[in-house]
Amino acid sequence: MEPRTVKIHDCEFSTYIFEEEIIARINILAEQIDEDYADKQPLFLAVLNGSFMFVSDLLKRVSVPCEISFIRLKSYQDMHSTGKVKELLGLTEDIRGRHVVVLEDIVDTGHTVHGLLQQLKEHNPASVEIATLLMKPECLQHQIEVKYVARSIPNDFVVGYGLDYNGLGRNLRDIYKIVS
Ligand code: 5GP
Ligand code: MG
Ligand code: MG
């Protein structure tokens, strides 16, 4: 695939993970989830905004009966994580006794997912797992188990396929990384 570059705000990004690879990896996740959640009727909680493309491509490949709902966390500015627990918005389902799968765009330091897990566990779900499109293992600062990871990446800032840089870039069909 021919490399492409794109300028977003003040930064240049170049193609990094093409859509074909993303979809191939999502197919594997969908198979694992179908196996693990047969008879469990999971509730998927998709974390907006960044997960929207991942959620769509993943869940149309999942065939177990399931529910899908969308939540939001107070969003994060620029390229650095803040470390504060983000407020959980939009949880309208009763998750008590449910098998919950959180769908995230990316796990970086893990602050976001760690804080979210704490908040969800207060509602006594039967189980909670995380499925993420991307993960930066070398940045993780919390002891959390991320059961489903489509693709691990090094500590590079990426955009596209749902992920933004200060609002722009979510609509790109491939994932781009910042040119250093
Ligand atoms: P964490 O709390 O794990 O440090 O960060 C998770 C959140 O930070 C993600 O949901 C995402 O919004 C943002 N984030 C972390 N790394 C990146 C990145 O490389 N690109 C973009 N666009 N967002 C990122
Ligand atoms: Mg996110
Ligand atoms: Mg963002």
From TrEMBL:
EC nos: 2.4.2.8
The entry lists its GO molecular-function terms as:
guanine phosphoribosyltransferase activity; hypoxanthine phosphoribosyltransferase activity; magnesium ion binding; nucleotide binding
Among the GO biological process terms of this entry, one is: GMP salvage
Name of this protein = Hypoxanthine phosphoribosyltransferase
Tell me the route in metabolism or biology where this protein functions.
Purine metabolism; IMP biosynthesis via salvage pathway; IMP from hypoxanthine: step 1/1
Q: Does the keyword Transcription regulation apply?
A: no
| A Pfam family assignment | Pribosyltran
> What is the protein's major site of localization?
cytoplasm
By sequence similarity, the record places it as follows: Belongs to the purine/pyrimidine phosphoribosyltransferase family.
Gene3D superfamilies under this entry?
3.40.50.2020
Q: Does the keyword Magnesium apply?
A: yes
